[in-house]
Each structure stands twice: as structure tokens, then as C-alpha cells.
Amino acid sequence: MQLMSGKSAAGGGLRERKKRATRAALAEAAVRLAAEHGAEKVTVEAISAAAGVSVRTFFNYFDSRDDAFVVIDADAGARMRRAVLEAPAELSPLAALREAMAAELAEAEQQHELWRLHAEVLHASPHLLARGVGAHMAAEADLADAIAERLRGAGGTSGAGSVAEAGSGLYPRLLAAVAGAAVRTSVDHWSAHQEEAAFLDVFHKVFSLLAAGLPAPPA
């Protein structure tokens, strides 16, 4: 799942905020049009018009039409990697990753409808789904690299094993993959039980279970 957050419009100077807002508007327009009409029937001209910009502006942000359907928030991965690397040294790798993801998901409840539409668009078009999976795998690998860099900076400790183990990539890759699964599980559970708890409460409960080693619930 590609993380999407209103946070993408925050931070940086005015020019950067406007650029992020324009990209977000184009991506949202693309997803909503594709959900309504089918991705194959949506043109760059229609996406641009719906977002209130020119076709030339569209290509300032996306290399192709399909990129607008697949790459929703191109900056999210970089923000999470930076947050993992800059997290307080006393935080475990899992806690650092949890906080980085929580920041991106702060507005998850407001973004839920768009997430649902995005998933529908990808699953309705096999080639977009394949590209989406590829983008997810690349983002996960980049996040694993950030975790590995953090471990090397901490001497490979923080409960992650030796420096050699951290450098092998096994622990960082596993942590990045497990965290991604935890986010998807949080979203799925919250979607089915929205009246019972706020999304971030579910998210933090899931990560608390991970931190505790996934103990079996009481019988």
C-alpha cells in the first residue's frame, strides 16, 4: 500500500508546499477519474482539467499518465527514511520505524476513501497492479536501507543482533516487510471496526503487539 498523507503538503517553503499540493491534486484527480471511468479511459487532459492545471504542468510532476495512478505520494518514502535516520538514538529500530510511519498516517482516517479507490483502480488494471507492487517493493527496500544505516550508526545494537547481522540486510529487510504488513493489517482492521477505535489507536496496538513479540492472546 502506498502511503498517502496530508502531511505531504506540509513543511518546506511556500514554493515547495505549492508543488506538493499540485502533485497531490493531480494524483487524487487521476485516481477518482479512474475509479469512475476506468483507468484506460482517462486521459492526461482530463486529469489536468480536474486538477485545474495545464497538461504541461502534469508532465512537470509525472513522466506518464500511468505514474499518476500508481505513484500517489512520491515524497513519502524519503520522509520516512529521513525520520528513521533522525529518530532519537534511544529508540529501537522498531520504535523509530513506528514513529516515522505514524507521522505519515496521522490523517489516515480522512484519506481512507482515497486509499480504497486507489486499491480498486490498481486491482482493476493488471499492468497498474504490477507497477504498484513494484513501487511498493522498491519503497520497502529503500526503507530497509535506512534501517540498516541506522543500525550501523548505532553499532548494530538496539536488539537487532551484531553489526555483521545488520549489515547482511536480513534484519532490516524483515523489519521493513513486517512493518508494512502491520500497516496493512491496521488499515484492514480499522476499516471493518471504524466505530470501535480511531485508526492511530489500532496502529499503535498492532505495533505494541510486534514489540512484545506477538504473544498469544489469552484463551
What is the compact description of this entry?
By secondary structure, this protein is mainly α. It has helices at residues 14-37, 44-51, 55-61, 65-70, 76-86, 93-104, 108-124, 126-153, 163-168, 170-192, 199-211. α5 runs parallel beside α8 and α6 crosses α10.
Give an overview of the whole structure.
The chain has 219 residues and is an all-alpha fold. It is built from eleven helices and no strands. It has helices at 14-37, 44-51, 55-61, 65-70, 76-86, 93-104, 108-124, 126-153, 163-168, 170-192, 199-211. α1 (14-37) crosses α7, α6 (93-104) runs antiparallel to α11 (199-211) and α7 (108-124) packs across α8. It starts with 13 loop residues before the first helix and ends in an 8-residue tail after the last helix. Residues 6-10 have low confidence and may be disordered.
Q: What labels would you give this structure?
A:
single chain; 219 residues; 11 helices; globular; mainly alpha
